[in-house]
Structures are given as structure tokens and as C-alpha cells.
Amino acid sequence: MTTMTVAPEAIQPRISAWERLRELAGRWQTIRYLTTSALKAGHRDKVLGHLWNILDPMMFMLVYYFVFGVLFGLAGGGRSTTFMLYILLGVLTFNFFSATSNQATVCIRGNRGLIHEINFPKGVFPISVTLARFYDFVWGLVVFFVFMVVGGIWPTAQYAWLPLLLLLLLMLTMGTAFLVAYLGAFFADMANIVNVIMRLLFYISPVFYFIRDITVNERHNGVMKAVHYRAMFHNELGRFIYMLNPFSCLLECFRDSMLWGRKPDPILLGYSAVASVLICIAGFLLFIRGEGKFAKYI
Fold first, then answer.
1. What is the C-alpha separation between 21 and 281, in angstroms, rounded?
2. Can you tell me the distance from the alpha carbon of 141 to that of 136, in angstroms, rounded to the nearest whole number?
3. Are 61 and 123 in contact (CB under 8 A)?
């Protein structure tokens, strides 16, 4: 008589998405612990510790301002303060998305010991990575607010859109984190591939250049003037294809609300909302579908 050996992942009962979501909610303390550990590990052995959450975005902003604002002349005409804030908001938002994606790609392979526990919900890893990087992002926004006030630009009523925009950004980033974590568990080369994709995304997103013509009222030397910011290209079809990137649309909504003091473009906001929700749901469903096989591949 022969006996059949069954792989551990094969005997796991099928769990619905709703049940897995409830299980993850019940593991909130685990997620909190992993998030705190990730934050501590990120600044371990550094003299300035968490102060780098403030210094990093400031240094990034100064570097990009010098390259694109000074050398390329994009900050001419007395608009240096606004252009610095424009870059800072772009860098902060992109760094959150990029750092989360890069770390989530290796979060499954980096926790082999816990992955081999059959009943352990693996979704806690991409979630904790996202929340840790979101914490850094919030500190960066504090730096942005300080620079705004120092530059004489005060928050407007349009900041009321900020909670919704943050939620959409978090959903878009978390959905992407689930997706790359799933792929990273099966393909060790995904870390390199995602790194290249993030570099490409940086340059095809309006982080340090204008994609829309913007005219705003700004105060220079005590006089209010209308300042026009011209987009880099004016081909409507090319711009439409360009803005299919949901991150670009969401970034423009952030700038409308926080920098230009106006209501986010309804088309960009609507598209960002739909894309963020769909990516979050699709990433989560794909992840829970494959998490039972992770132990076999790592």
C-alpha cells in the first residue's frame, strides 16, 4: 500500500477574500509591530535617527531644484519658492510610492521563517511596509507645510480634499505593494525589474516638470502678479496617453489642492479614484490567491 505525500500548501482550506480581510484585521497588533520594527530598522545606527524623515525630503528638494530650477532655468522669473514646493511635493509623493514598491517586492522572501507557518496571514507584510513608508511620507508633508508658510503661501479651504487624496494614494500604493509582493515571491529577479520600472516611472511622471499649463496669482515683492507655468508639450493625444498613469493624475490632484489652492480637476480625480480602488482590489485578490504557494517557492 502506498501513501501519498501532500504538500502543506495543498491542504490549506480555500479562504474567501472577505474572510482573509477579516483575518488581517484581527492581526492588527502584528501589523503594528512589523510597522514599528520597519521604522526602527530604517534608522538603526544613525546618529540623527528619525530626524532623517525631515532631512531626506529637504535634501532631495534642494538637489532637484538646483538641477532643474537653476541649471535648466525652470525656476526663473521670481518663482523659485513655488517651484521648490512643486518639486518637493512631487518628490515626497513619488518616494513614498517607489520606496514602498521596492521594499514590498522582497518582503515575502525576507520573512521565510514566518511564511512557512501555514496559518499565518502573509498579507501583513506588504501592509506593514506600506504603513511604515506612509509614516515617512506624513513627516515629509510636515516639511512641505513649513516651507509653504515660510514662503508666504498659506493653506486654503481646498485642503479639505487632502484626506480623500491621501486615502487614494494609500490604496494605489498598497494595491501595488500586494502585486509586487506576489510577483517577488515567485521570481527573485522582480526586485531588479521593479527598481528599473520605478526609475522609468519617475521620469514619465510630472515630478519635476509641468504637464499642464498653470496660471496662478503669486506675490512678488509685495505685488500680486499672475504667473504662467507652461507645460513641456502640448500634443493633446500625447498628453492623454501620458495621463493614463494614475500616479500622474493623483499627483496633479495633490498639487491642485495643496499648492495651487483650487479644486482638483474632476476628471483626473475621478480617474485616480477608480484606478486606485481597482488596483487595490486586484492586487489584494491576486496576493491571497497565491499566498498558499509562497512556502513552496521560497
1. 11
2. 9
3. no
Is residue 92 situated within a structural domain?
yes
Tell me, yes or no, whether 4 lies in a domain: no
Domain count, the chain: 1
Task: For residue 202, give the nearest of 107, 275, 96 by alpha carbon.
Answer: 96
Is the alpha carbon torsion for 32, 277, 168, 206 positive or negative? Answer: positive
Helix (H, G, I), strand (E, B) or coil at 291: helix
> Model's pTM, two decimal places?
0.84
| pLDDT tens for the chain, residues 1 to 298 | 444 444 444 444 567 777 888 888 888 888 898 898 888 776 555 555 556 667 777 777 777 777 766 666 655 555 667 888 888 899 899 999 999 999 999 998 888 777 776 567 889 999 999 999 999 899 889 888 888 888 778 889 999 999 999 999 999 999 999 999 999 999 888 999 999 999 999 988 988 888 887 766 665 555 555 666 667 666 777 788 888 899 999 999 999 999 988 899 999 999 999 999 999 999 999 998 888 788 777 7
- Domain-embedded: residue 8: no
Considering the domain boundaries, does residue 7 fall inside one? Answer: no
